[in-house]
Amino acid sequence: MPIRIVIALLIFSLLSSAAVQASLKLPETVKVDPAALTAEPMCDPKISPAWREAQEIDGVKIAASPGCSPDNPAWIAAAVKGTNHVSMDTLMKTGLSPDAIIKTDDLDGDGDPDRIIIKLEIMELNGKSPDFPGLVPTFDIAPGVQPGAWVFAPKTSGMSTENFESVRANPLLRLPSPVIRVEVGDIVQIVLENTHYFPHSIHLHGVDHPFSHGDHAGQDGVPQTSEVELMPGGRRVYEFQARQPGTMFYHCHVQTHTHLAMGLAGMIVVEENRPNNWLQTLNIGAGHVRHPSVAVRENFDQEYDLHYHAMDKELSDIIQKYNDPRLIARDMNQRYDITDSTEDYYTLNGLSYPYTLRESLIIVEPDQKIKLRLLNSGGESIAVHTHGHHATITHYDGVEHNPVAQIMRDVFDMAPAQRLDLKLETVNDGKHSYGEGDWLIHDHREKGITTNGMAEGGSMSSIVYKSYLHDSGLPKVNHFGIDLNKFFTKEYYERRLPVWQDLDEWSSLGSPGGQTGLGAQEQTSLLNGVIGLLIGLVIYLIFAKREQIKQSAIAAVSRLKGAKGSNPK
Question: What is the CA radius of gyration of the chain?
């Protein structure tokens, strides 16, 4: 090929590349129309505002809970008195079975019942059904986010859904498994009725209980040492009489690497013995304890249960693929490899941000002492950070730490299955508290503030002073120009709503629209093609002119030798 043609091709390639680059233009910004979003109220409209008020039901005094989605006060009354001692009207408002919580026999004569029977079932959330094409019953941990889960639930008298026309879970069937509260010396029976399709058990982790064994039943809940798994349709009684108070833990110990991770875990609290100590035996929604024990009221103004849990999407998805227990057992027990797992959903009291703002706010006033009980039932360590406050660790794993050695911190490391009791004081001295505000509390591992990798999400909540609480029960962030509405849309967690779309009037960080020129991938491909052509042309020129190049090289070497030979000696 004549050299002039080669040069022409080279010039043409360079000019074409320049023309393409010149034709590229920045895309238009496309703003997602708020009207197109599946927006929902920030407070659950199904929950009555009257539930937030201080009240008395069947002689049970229930403290006010100013958050926007408090627990059903009827649940609290039934948990304190027992379902065998409340009125039929109260019982009907709970949805609990009449034998869900039985309290009898004041054995020590101090004015409160000492024989407690608690009946739990095992329920599935967001699972596959043979009779329905979707998931049932559904439980959203965040807008549109429905991981498959299993829970211990109090025995109910109704359907698994809230009504015949809905697939939403009965409010009693929810993450996390309920907090159980009993008193030192109580004779406690936890009756597990296995309403699930898999075998299960209960292990009373940290709770003082005997080791016993028999043909089938034990008390430690461990199939490898003391008992046979409780098969579907079976019933087993776990009995203990605790001698030491503390914040403990209960969970399934059958195939623990999957069953615990699926949600079969809850907090169990053994309270100090006091006269006339009627306890809130179940805290079904977790969060605010609206009827604290006598011992807690002696030293604290409020009490909160904070249950941190994390789930792996790959594991949760298994029960959403099949309705055949054999296939689920195969995938969970043989194909699922926990050593390759990643946690994707981070929850506080069963919910992820922004739903944590509904239930799990720690609402305080100045100069208060707040008792916080924390449980980490996830598979990784967490690091809970309290903005604006330093709290004191009073107990590790249910055991009181020496008062002279108790540690004040603002980051609290918690290993899997670990429990911490914290004393949070709101005195504004620059150490205990920095003053009133809406102070974030979150897991300082940054993935802990995400939901399936999307921030803002995860187990975030706030320590909110009442002066910063809106009448709705949510923080007054809208007064500062902060809009939380976008987080209450499923599109946000589906990654269809730009994170910073509304930071300025012209949406400078909004979603880029269709591109008028070539995209980045096309540009890269074109550039690689031009480079390849140039390299090919160079190789061709070397091959075509190899004789001329050879002669030129020989001539150059000869001239070089001649120049050296002419040098004087």
Answer: 33
